[in-house]
Amino acid sequence: MTDPSAEQVRKQMQKQTLEQTQVPLQEQQIVDVPVVLTEADLAQINTRARIELMQVVFAQALSAIVVALLSWLLGGFDAGWSALAGSAAYFVPNVLFALRLFLATFKPGGSSALVFLVGEFLKVGAAVGLLWLLAHVGGERVVWLAVIAGLIAALKGYMLVLMFGRRVTSHPKNS
Description:
Radius of gyration: 29 Å
Helix content: over 70%
Strand content: under 5%
Number of strands: 0
Order of helices and strands: HHHHHH
Distance between the termini: 52 Å
Number of helices: 6
């Protein structure tokens, strides 16, 4: 026969264990679990990044050309060149930045957030500098409405990818 006090201690311990496992959600600690990617997952992510970078650059080029042609048809030669120059003021720095990001997908560590932030800052600064250069070199021939239209076309060219693009690579399947 078991000792009654030992039985009471055992039941008390079971009760405490049960209470500890039923801690309300607010009191539970949430533990961050690091995501571990396989080499195949990393390769798939890098492939998708390369494809999407190229799609955005091509979409920006297409929208810039379309706006330049429309400006040329509606406003003449100077308007067409102005729209093309406005597009180029953003497109050229963006292509260089996209090339930098594209090449970073081949490095094992990729690109850091600081490099991305500095690249964005330099891209915007270069675009402003090119617009300043256009204003000083173009003189009276610059059609500013066409420049703004071309700039917006290049800035928002990625929307073509969002509207018409499709997922090229498939998502990993859960087993």
